Structures are given as structure tokens and as C-alpha cells.
Amino acid sequence: MKVRLPPAALAVVQLLTLTSGVLAAPVLDQPLLSILPVSEELPKTLSIPSRYQSTVLARRLLHLSTHGDLITIFPPSQNLSTRIPSSVASTPIGLPEYIATCEEDDALHAADPTILSLKISTATRNAEAGSNVSLAISWWDEYIHLTGTRPWAPANLPRLSLTGYLEEIPSSAVTQKGVETCFVKKHKDSVLWLPGRKWAAHEGFWTRLVVQEAYWIGGFGDKNYIGWLDPEEWRAIKREEWEGVRLPGEKKEDEE
Ligand SMILES: *[C@@H]1O[C@H](CO)[C@@H](O)[C@H](O)[C@H]1NC(C)=O
Ligand SMILES: *[C@@H]1O[C@H](CO)[C@@H](O)[C@H](O)[C@H]1NC(C)=O
To answer: What positions does the domain CREG-like beta-barrel occupy (predicted)?
Structure first.
């Protein structure tokens, strides 16, 4: 049985449902958006972006992101350094990391995030001990930065998880692709750690996260694609494509 209720009534019904469990069926029949305030970030069209369109948005999100949470897994207890609590053996740890996309023009690695890996960092040590990695990024901070307002529902904004492994970028490629210049452009303070500099506070090296899979949450599922992207499509998207789309809160091209 479907029961249509005005938004205010719906909120009350939801409250009742939480406490009593009754009326659950009609509430579940209501699209979530009917309780949302009229919002500028909802797309005008009713159609859900395709996986491909979402991949283009995801590539833009990666390119515009300055940081992400890099998740690695501690080695099993027999391989764990004595400096590390034994209870974290085989446990994932996520730590924020500067990122950039400094290999955009390399067909093979265009969509692999660039990271300045410090030898002392937990993520680097775990990766060297064999851990695969994930990188989580979201549009939450940047949305607030661009619009100056908190979104009514951050859960309705894009986020992305990239899974794969870390790989050192060969020094010839670093020079040829201008990785340093690209990274410092995004992170001015990273000059303090540039690999091979005698002033560097910590020894580091350039790595790429070789993306094996990408998982995308475009926002609420009734208007957005949520799911795995195709790795081939992820890699093949061209710069012109992600330059031609806009994420929520960004000015349209003709407004810039
Ligand atoms: C643990 O260390 C041993 C000896 O160094 C090595 O052979 C083995 O591959 C390591 N195992 C893991 C899971 O890192
Ligand atoms: C890392 O992922 C690959 C699959 O991409 C898998 O074969 C390998 O066993 C994983 N490594 C570890 C240490 O779990």
C-alpha cells in the first residue's frame, strides 16, 4: 500500500517509525528526496548519470583534490616492527596525504594519483612490507570552500575510493614529466621534502598509486550512480572530457 504524505507529516511518521516500528512500509515507499528542502545541488534532470558520465566526474574529482586519506594495512604480527603496538597487526590505518595528478599526459598513468612518499611514514613502510592501498577522497571540503556554505546533506555529494598499490616513479619519468613542478604548484610547502634535496627534512621519493579499481558514490542513489567504475574507462578518460564537466557547487563553464 502506498501512502503519499506531505513532507512535514513524513518527518513525524519517520520519527514514529524509529520508535515504534509501525508504519514502516509507507515510509519506505517515499522517495528520500521528498523530505529534502529545495536544493541548488540537485541536478535538474531526472536521469541518473551513467557509469561513464560518473567516471568523467570521478576523474575531475581526483584532479581537483589536493589531499585524500591513504589507507594501508600493517604487516602481520610476526613481521611487525617492535615500535608498533602488536594489537594493530594486520589492521588498516588511514592517514591524510597530499596528492596531485602529475602524470596526466601519460596514457598508462594519467589516472594514477601522485604522492610524495616519505621513508619514515607509516603508509610507506606498510606499502614496502607488501600492503596494497586505498585512497579515499571526497568533494566535501572543496564544496564548502567554493560555495562558502555547508551542504544540507554532505552525503549527497561525490566521493571516491581508489584501490591498488604504490609504485615508485622512475627518476627519468620524474624529470621528463616535470613531476616536481606539478606537485609544488599544488602544494607549495612540499619543497621542504623534495626527494634528493640536501635540505629535505625527511628522505622521500615519488610514488604513484597504480589504480586497479575505483568505487564511486555520486550522492544519494536515486539521482546518482553508486558502484564500481570500469578500470579501463577510468584510465582512458581524456583531459578534455573531465575539463568539460562540473561537480556540485562549481560554476558552469560560461559563468567563469
Ligand atoms: C614476513 O617476513 C618474512 C621474513 O622476512 C618474509 O619471508 C615474509 O614474506 C613476510 N610476510 C609478510 C606477509 O610480509
Ligand atoms: C594486493 O592485491 C593483489 C590483487 O590486486 C593481490 O594479488 C595481492 O595478494 C595483494 N597483496 C597483499 C599483500 O594482500
So the answer is: 50-234
